[in-house]
Every structure is written in structure tokens, then in C-alpha cells.
Write a structure and sequence with these properties.
Blueprint (H helix, E strand, L loop, with lengths): L1 H17 L4 E13 L6 E10 L2 E7 L6 E8 L4 E4 L1 E6 L8 H5 L2 H6 L2 E6 L5 H13 L6 E4 L4 E2 L9 E2 L6 H11 L4 E3 L6 H14 L3 E3 L7 H7 L3 E3 L2 H6 L4 H7 L6 H6 L3 H13 L3 E3 L2 H8 L17 H5 L2 H13 L3 H19 L20 H12 L4 H9 L1 H5 L17 E4 L13 E6 L2 E4 H11 L2
Parallel strand pairs: 1-4, 1-5, 6-7, 7-8, 9-10, 11-12, 13-14
Antiparallel strand pairs: 1-2, 2-3, 5-15, 15-16, 16-17
Helix pairs in contact: 12-15, 16-17
């Protein structure tokens, strides 16, 4: 009798399992090789279930029968990884260039850049509007984190900046940024004094606001770190701290004119002490190597045949003239600072990374930054990091892992796991083996939207000049 009851129960359980309802999802990616950027592991034969903009399950392919989906992508012989983050871009140029800046958004997606960090400009309201529409699915483009207007001194270097002439101006400036609901505070050294620079960091720290940007050359980045500085853009300021002559040079010439001697007196042993402090305080450094190389060569390279130049409007191309004229003046004066800066920057990358300094990939693309194109220039930046000594996996981490980490969003981005955002790339080749394979994008998934190659081409064609 017991055997009969047991047999009947097992049949009932098997029947229920075979006929249990399948879970419904929006998208199934089958036969994928999942790339774990954090560990460098490759996991073939996986199924990824996605609902809306969120990863629901990552399982062995045999378990795909548990799901049904509105759309299925067979990713056999392809690789899946998180979308790229470009942590230094600019939307700017004034009201007359708003539409032309907006036309740049599809270029990011076409190159697998699903998130950007806008580092300040003069069309903040438009950028905030795009941010909202992208988040709600009304506009195609990368997710945008923005600083809003830069904070500069009484004679700002860039239009749209908030003037902070003295310590008394700091509360109102930060109030303005908080009212705009910006994601972080970007400082600029056009005429910002070191006292105000330090004051902004301390006041922002009290409000829980992240700070990064350009440091007045009269200031000391390590003092900024002690006050709570979260990041530094470009390598001038870290490089300055690595020279034993920094203090004496600052007393004589507190400007960029000291950089030649800063570079010449760079001390690797002192640099290790600086890097250790940056690591301990988790200060994110954005090297922007590609724009440094581009500007150092700008008078010697013919950019007229650049593949992405036709996607840049005539209005934005006109802004490129400023950098070209500046390079001509520098050459006429005999200055080789940019070339020396480029060489020393490459030398610093591997020691900084190995010391644990969180480097972030940022292209500095946008108006006024000549021939540094949205989307493609982030790939150039990652390739420069590899040229500087990082492995492809290490370079990708500076974008995919450290980008979200700057904003404390590691639990939502950076890997392919249940509960994380489904901002993903499906690639034809493995970028862990060769960083240039990162350009072979087959699909881009962003904010619940699926962008196939044909759709990406149509989006780019729509903005081609």
C-alpha cells in the first residue's frame, strides 16, 4: 500500500513539474558567453532573462525552458558584457547648439556607451531634459549623470559656470546645484582660488555631494583629498603632487607654466606615496589620455577623413578652431609641454593602477574639444590605457566597474547578475583578448530598449551631416 501511494505521489509531482507555468519575460538571450569584468572569467552556454530594464536570471542554457519571452536573441558564438561608461563628456556651446548637441546622443549608443558623465557646460536645462526623457524611454541615448554648471571663480573660463568669488559665495552656489538635482559638483580652475577650491570641497562633503574637477595650480591635491575630494580630472594635479619641487614652483609661478619643470622633476618614489593616499581615500582619477594625444598631434594629423567627422555638425566643428589656434601659438613659442605631458601620462598609468588608484575612462568628447568624437573616442581612450600597460580587462574595468563605483552604484551596474540593470552589449568577438574587439558591437541593450545593428545605423544616418 505504501509503495502504491509513493508511486502515485511521484507521478503527481512529475506531472506538475512538466506542466508548471513558465515565467514570462521580455527578452531571452540564449547561448551567450557571459564576460565577468570583475574576475576576468568567461562563462559560456548561458541564458539571460530580462524584464524591462532589469536582469531577472542568469542560468545555464538547459534551464531556458523555464521561461517564455516576447523576444529571443541567439547569442551563439557571441559575448555579453555590461555597457560602457564614458566618465568625462561635455554638452555645451550655448542655445544655438542645443539641437546639434542632442544629435550626438545616438553616437554613444552606436559604440556601446550606455552611460555618460557630463562634466559641465552651458546648456544644463537641455541636458536635464534629455536625462529625464532617456530615463523614461522617450528619447534614445545613454543614461546621463551631470554636474550641471561648473563652479569657477569671478572670471569663469567657460560660459554657463557659476561664479564663486569668495568663501561666502559657496552656500548659494551649492544650493543652486542641489535645486537642479545634479549628480555631483564639478570645479574648474579658470579663476578659482585655492581657498575657495578647498572651501567647496569641505562644504560639499558636509552636504554629501561628490566633488571632482580641475584644481587651481596654486592648490595641493592632497590637502583636497584630506577635505573629502572624490575625484580629479586629467593628470596635471596628481602629477604636480609627484614632484618634490611642487611647493617651491608654486611660490614662484602658481600656474600651468610650471608643468615643464613638474614633468622634469617627477619622482617615482614620491609618486608611490601619492598613489597610496589616493587609493586609501578612494579618489577617482580620470586620465583622459586620448584627448591629450589628439591635441599634442593636432597640427600634424589630417582629420578631414575621420570616419566620425561627418556626424559632427558644422556648428560643433567650428568650435574646434580654438584648440587648433592654441596649438599654433604653443608651437610658435617653442612649447613642447603637451608632448611631454602625453609621454609622462602614459608612464604614470600602470603604476597608478597597480597601486590601487581607481582610474576612470573618460574621453572629454564634445564641443571645443577638437576631433574627439562621442562614442568612438571612449574606445580610443581604452586603447590608450592598454598602450600604457593595462591589460584589456583592466582597461575595461576603468569604464564598466569604476564608472558606477564613482556614484556608489556597484549594486546596480558592473556585472551581469539578477537584479542589476540590463544595460548590455552583445559582441561578435572577445574584448578580453583584444581591446579593439570591443568595437564589434552586434546589439546594445539600454533602458529596456534593444538596439540592433540596423537600428543603430539608422540612428546614426539620421544625424549625419
Amino acid at each position: 500500500m505504501k509503495n502504491t501511494l509513493f508511486g502515485a505521489l511521484m507521478c503527481l509531482l512529475l506531472f506538475s513539474a512538466c506542466n508548471s507555468p513558465k515565467e514570462s519575460t521580455d527578452l531571452l538571450i540564449l547561448n551567450a558567453t557571459v564576460l565577468d569584468v570583475e574576475t576576468g572569467k568567461e562563462m559560456p552556454g548561458k541564458m539571460i532573462a530580462i524584464s524591462g530594464d532589469t536582469i531577472r536570471a542568469v542560468l545555464d542554457i538547459e534551464e531556458s525552458e523555464k521561461f517564455t519571452a516576447t523576444k529571443v536573441i541567439d547569442a551563439e558564438n557571441q559575448y555579453v558584457m555590461p555597457g560602457l561608461w564614458d566618465m568625462h563628456v561635455h554638452f555645451r556651446g550655448g542655445d544655438t547648439l542645443v539641437a546639434e548637441n542632442k544629435d550626438l546622443l545616438p553616437l554613444f549608443l552606436a559604440y556601446g556607451v550606455t552611460t555618460v558623465r557630463d562634466a559641465g557646460g552651458d546648456i544644463t536645462q537641455s541636458v536635464l531634459d534629455w536625462r529625464q526623457k532617456i530615463n523614461s524611454g522617450e528619447l534614445d541615448g545613454p543614461a546621463i549623470f551631470t554636474s550641471g554648471p561648473k563652479l569657477d571663480g569671478p572670471e569663469p573660463a567657460w560660459d554657463g559656470s557659476i561664479e564663486v568669488a569668495g568663501l561666502e559665495d559657496i552656500p548659494a552656489a551649492l544650493d543652486s546645484l542641489e535645486q537642479l538635482k545634479v549628480d555631483y559638483v564639478k570645479m574648474y580652475d579658470g579663476s578659482l582660488t585655492k581657498e575657495v577650491f578647498y572651501g567647496i570641497i569641505a562644504a560639499a562633503e558636509e552636504r554629501g555631494l561628490k566633488t571632482t574637477g580641475h584644481m587651481p595650480m596654486s592648490a595641493d591635491i592632497l590637502k583636497g583629498v584630506d577635505l573629502g575630494l572624490d575625484g580629479s580630472e586629467h593628470l596635471y594635479y596628481v602629477m604636480k603632487a609627484c614632484s618634490p619641487k611642487a611647493d617651491s614652483l608654486t611660490r614662484v609661478n602658481p600656474g600651468y607654466g610650471m608643468m615643464d619643470e613638474i614633468i622634469d622633476t617627477y619622482d617615482p618614489q614620491l609618486a608611490q606615496q601619492v598613489f597610496q593616499k589616493l587609493k586609501e581615500n578612494k579618489v577617482f582619477v580620470t586620465p583622459t589620455l586620448h584627448i591629450g594625444k589628439t591635441l599634442s598631434e593636432i597640427l600634424d594629423v589630417d582629420h578631414s577623413t575621420d570616419s566620425l567627422l561627418p556626424y559632427i555638425s558644422s556648428g560643433l566643428q567650428k568650435t574646434y578652431g580654438g584648440r587648433i589656434e592654441g596649438a599654433k601659438r604653443a608651437r610658435a613659442s617653442g612649447s613642447t609641454m603637451r608632448e611631454k605631458m602625453e609621454e609622462k601620462s602614459l608612464e604614470m598609468i600602470k603604476p597608478m593602477y597597480d597601486s590601487g588608484v581607481p582610474l576612470m575612462a573618460g574621453s572629454d568628447c564634445g564641443a571645443f574639444n577638437s576631433y574627439v568624437y562621442p562614442g568612438g573616442s571612449l574606445h580610443n581612450e581604452l586603447e590608450r590605457l592598454v598602450a600604457a600597460g593595462l591589460t584589456p580587462i583592466e582597461a575595461i574595468k576603468t569604464s564598466v566597474i569604476n564608472g558606477p563605483a564613482f556614484f556608489g552604484l556597484e549594486n546596480s551596474y558592473g556585472s551581469i547578475e539578477p537584479g542589476k540593470m540590463a544595460d548590455l552589449l552583445i559582441l561578435n568577438s572577445n574584448p578580453f583578448e583584444n581591446i579593439e574587439k570591443l568595437r564589434e558591437v552586434s546589439y546594445v541593450l539600454a533602458k529596456g530598449e534593444i538596439y540592433e545593428q540596423e537600428k543603430l545605423r539608422e540612428m546614426m544616418q539620421a544625424v549625419k551631416q
